[in-house]
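User: I want to check something. If I give you two sequences, will you return the structure for each one separately, not as a complex?

Assistant: Yes, each is folded on its own. Here is the first sequence with its structure:
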Amino acid sequence: MNKWNEINTEETSATTDYDEDNQIGVQTSTEQLLKESMNFRQILVPVDFSPSSKLAVEHAVSFAQHFGSSLLLLNVVEFNFVGSEFATLDIVHVEKDLKINAEKMLESLVNEQIGSRARASTLVHIGRPYFEITDVAADKKCDLIIIGSHGHSALRHILLGSTVERVIRHAHCPVLVIRPPSEKTPD
């Protein structure tokens, strides 16, 4: 069968399959076509426990419900230590404690915010957020990344850079950025 997509948004929202003799076959709704063409089996959701990342989780749950996807919530612990000859610190112990704490917070987030609405698993990595996010997305064969934007000021953005922008640049899959409702678009 040859498939011609005839989507007329004013009258109907469907596609029609034609066989080789141009005989009408099966009509498919736009929603079904989208589900078939956008196959998001695994969605990565980076979580830093900020309001914007929790909003991204809500959107990811909606996507998971709509597309039958599973969610992978990732928290990246970025531990920056500037040493001193006067201070001693067991870095391995501190990183382990930070990771355990992040795992508990992620599990709590899954229980409170997702519950049984979607299949979800969690993962905690230690490192640079943008690198870990793009690395996990590739390693776990994620089909989509849904990430919250913090909406930092222009000066802070210039000085610190943007994890979201780096993820967009380096990700192997599509990235959906969720902006907080209060974030205004520049004029």
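And separately, the second sequence with its own structure:
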Amino acid sequence: MDHAVPMSWLLVAVGVTCVALLGWWRAAYRMTRGNRRRQVRAQRGEDGAADVLAAAGFTILDHQVTAEWSYWLDDAEVVVRCRADLLVEGDSGRYVAEVKTGARAIDPTNPATRRQLLEYRLAFPVDGVLLVDMEERRVVAVDFDLDHTGDFIWDYESAAAS
């Protein structure tokens, strides 16, 4: 019995492998290039934030500040860390400031941005949270009513009918 693989099958296998590797390489390159572009834009935003914050009356105390906090999953404590761009001080106290660029990221009603700012407010021992909008070059104070957890909105009649 001859177990030799025909040369044509071997060439097809090598060709398919080369095409797959080329596709993987191109996708990885595009992703890396996009990430690099976002990082450069974010770094420019953070560099320019000092001027925007100073014009609004804030002084930068520290960069890339980290807070550690915990929450509970059943009976197990889970300790997590979060990092904010800046710790700043103004006439009315100390704040963590998040520097944002890009149309969606600068919107404090964007769920991802809102959740990030809420986490900062809960995790850091500060007087508030600032969103530094580098597109408009402005500082937005974001506050949360931490004494009130919200109203449960539910249509009882519709729920009962289903």
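Because they were folded independently, the notes below concern the second chain alone. The CA atoms of residues 105 and 113 lie 6 Å apart. The helical segments are 7-55, 111-123, 156-161.
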